[in-house]
């Protein structure tokens, strides 16, 4: 083999080894980040217990799981919904979702969807969003569009058209 062919093979081997090394390091870094986020979440939930008790909430259940059935094209699918805490204060029960970091805002669509899911599945008296990074506890309520408002418009139109129809068939005096 000539010197240039050997150099090409060395460059190719170095590129392959570099790619494999990069991939391994990238996977380790990703695993480290996931583990760090998981540990951070566990610590936030431990701190949340103290936070909630200090504010007068009694913890009824942690990591509450509920299985629901969703029908997809008529076929049942079992789905598990997991809430962080079920708490009571006074006569009201609440589902508490604990967030840490950037995920503690109701403005994020995935947070809203999650809280709406809790509202539908658990049907508590209220939903609480606990942001452990900022130490804020917010009660979340949802206001749904009033469908009665649309019924009023439809009934008004119906009776108006009915009245016009009756008026048009009456003999004119």
Key descriptive features of the protein:
3 helices; five-stranded mixed beta sheet; Lambda Exonuclease, Chain A; alpha+beta; about 170 residues; 5 strands
**Uncertain spans, ≥5 residues at pLDDT below 50?**
none
Secondary-structure arrangement, i.e. CATH architecture: Alpha-Beta Complex
Query: Which percent bin holds the helix content?
Result: 40-55%
Largest beta sheet: strand ordering: 1-2-3-4-5
What is the string of helix and strand elements? HEEEHEEH
Quote the average pLDDT.
82
Tally of alpha and pi helices: 3
Percent strand equals 25-35%
Q: Describe the main β-sheet briefly.
A: 5 strands, mixed
The counted number of beta strands is: 5
Which CATH class applies here? Alpha Beta
Give the N-terminus to C-terminus distance in angstroms.
Answer: 115 Å
State the CATH topology: Lambda Exonuclease, Chain A
Structural class: alpha+beta
Rg, alpha carbons: 30 Å
Question: How many individual domains?
Answer: 1
What would the principal axes of the Cα set say about the shape? flat
């Amino acid at each position: 083999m000539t010197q240039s062919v050997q150099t090409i093979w060395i460059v190719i081997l170095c590129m392959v080894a570099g790619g494999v090394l990069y991939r391994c390091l990238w996977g380790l870094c990703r695993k480290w980040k996931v583990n760090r986020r998981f540990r951070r979440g566990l610590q936030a939930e431990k701190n949340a217990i103290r936070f909630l008790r200090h504010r007068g909430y009694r913890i009824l259940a942690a990591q509450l799981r509920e299985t629901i059935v969703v029908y997809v094209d008529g076929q049942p699918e079992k789905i598990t919904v997991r809430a962080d805490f079920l708490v009571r204060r006074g006569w009201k029960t609440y589902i508490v979702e604990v967030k840490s970091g950037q995920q503690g805002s109701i403005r994020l669509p995935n947070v809203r969807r999650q809280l709406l899911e809790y509202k539908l599945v658990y049907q508590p008296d209220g939903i609480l969003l606990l942001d452990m990074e900022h130490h804020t506890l917010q009660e979340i309520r949802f206001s749904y569009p009033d469908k009665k408002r649309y019924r009023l418009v439809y009934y008004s139109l119906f009776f108006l058209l009915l009245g016009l129809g009756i008026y048009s068939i009456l003999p004119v005096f």
